[in-house]
Design goal:
single chain, globular, 2 strands, 7% strand, mainly alpha, 7 helices
Length: 169
């Protein structure tokens, strides 16, 4: 264990990273379902309710914000491919959650989390601007992970760094 792993801020950042990763996995769990391929082999797939809900949210947002560059992106790119975008969001949540939970490639996971929280804030903000607050908090946590190197303490990033430092050439 490195000296930085024993510092309280590093422990707190590692704790927040683990909790955030578990939260992302839990959120993705609600967007996935099990499909039995051939009646026997269970495979996780994106749930139909999420494939229908995300485009409906985006369409409602677009009805309130019909002009602008972001509206053009939603109208021309996201809405025509709504079920695909819903699947990408669900699987990126799984990937970012696993990476954060393990502390592996934490900076990549933080960037994915920032992108996800931005997309989900857009989808949630159509009803009430207060619905965006949890996603802004998620983005703030991800920025802290990005800046603080959250995978160095109690994570695979720190273990890989120590292992590569101790190799003999």
């Amino acid at each position: 264990m490195t000296r930085t792993a024993t510092l309280p801020p590093a422990r707190a950042l590692a704790f927040l990273r683990i909790v955030t990763g578990a939260g992302l996995l839990l959120a993705a769990y609600g967007k996935l379902t099990i499909f039995r391929f051939g009646g026997t082999l269970p495979l996780p797939v994106v749930a139909l309710h999420w494939q229908l809900e995300l485009p409906a949210r985006l369409a409602s947002w677009l009805a309130q914000h019909p002009a602008g560059v972001l509206a053009a992106i939603v109208r021309d790119v996201l809405l025509p491919h709504g079920p695909l975008v819903a699947g990408i969001i669900a699987w990126l949540q799984v990937l970012a959650g696993l990476l954060l939970l393990l502390g592996l490639r934490t900076r990549l996971a933080a960037v994915l989390t920032i992108l996800l929280s931005t997309a989900l804030a857009l989808a949630a903000g159509y009803r009430d601007p207060q619905n965006v607050r949890p996603y802004l908090m998620l983005a703030a946590l991800a920025i802290a992970f990005l800046i603080g190197g959250a995978g160095d303490s109690y994570g695979m990033d720190g273990w890989r760094r120590e292992r590569s430092r101790n190799r003999d050439f």
